[in-house]
């Protein structure tokens, strides 16, 4: 296990990409543990965390045993993909906050954290524009069949694409949207000039609010059975896990496409592969998968009617800086005796 550790005897400062060290004063310093991350450095976090008495321990560990070893005595825990189970939470002696580099908080036992009076935070406003734009890009690729036309061209073909590769009008198609949160709304805003029929299903929003947004509120089965394109923007919960499965794919039009920029497990991947092979649906565009990164043998990577991007919808240089900074800022708030800005487990406030 690779470990970058800031030694407890020193304070780490960041200035012009160089690190400066100063002897620690004889007071207890906060211990902040980063279990795992995919970013090249933690300069953004260090810039924020140097405001408080913090030693930052930067690891790359994701499994339960390793997290328990490195985090047992931490005051704050910053995570990306590590699973924070009840067993992990019960092992934390001093932890006051678990901050996640993400919008979704699947993988954290919220109930266990709340029972231990630990704040759980996410970053819910850092990549809405990027994700909604990525979803639109995937929709445009599917509707205009850009990849297929490119392949057609480099193979020396120029004519007859209109006979062998029919393309329908996006303007006259039905685009179904599953979910009605911040990202969904931004996606809809970008889509409105391009499509006349936008249907939305949301279990958590009244139909009146959806209709007031200038789109049509529909039931799930109606969206599934009628939409030409379905774009998923829902959170992953036990209730939504495998929301799209074999039974749902059977209800979809054989000419329809599915787009997922939310969470991989919203789609039963095995059932999706079956639906594509059996031509129950026409294609899929996926930025998220059940297993990430996927194994090389994953059939989805070999299908001409499937596009897979590497969970990159969230990314821009701006959104990454916002993500890393916001997580650290909530840690500073909590360790300074204040409430976090992006609190997820609101019930923890009842314990105070």
Write a structural description.
This protein is of the alpha/beta class and 352 residues long. The protein has helices spanning 43-49, 64-71, 86-90, 110-115, 128-144, 146-154, 161-164, 182-191, 207-212, 220-226, 246-251, 269-277, 317-335, and strands at 3-5, 10-15, 18-23, 30-34, 54-59, 76-79, 97-100, 119-121, 174-178, 197-201, 216-217, 229-232, 257-260, 283-286, 306-308. It has a seven-stranded parallel beta sheet, with helices on both faces. A six-stranded mixed beta sheet has the order 1-5-4-6-7-8. Helix 1 runs parallel beside helix 13 (317-335) and helix 5 (128-144) packs across helix 8. Mean pLDDT is 91; it is low at 1-26.
What's the N-to-C terminus distance?
A: 38 Å
- The secondary structure category is alpha/beta
Number of strands: 15
Q: What portion of residues is helical?
A: 25-40%
Oligomer: single chain
Biggest sheet features: 7 strands, parallel
Q: Radius of gyration, rounded?
A: 23 Å
Numbering strands along the chain, what is their spatial order in the largest sheet?
11-10-9-12-13-14-15
Shape: elongated
- Residue stretches low in confidence (pLDDT < 50, at least 5 long) are 1-26
Beta-strand residue fraction: 15-25%
Compute the average pLDDT: 91
Element-level helix/strand string: EEEEHEHEHEHEHHHEHEHEHEHEHEEH
Number of helices, where a helix is a run of at least 4 consecutive DSSP H or I residues: 13
Summarize the structure.
The chain has 352 residues and is of the alpha/beta class.
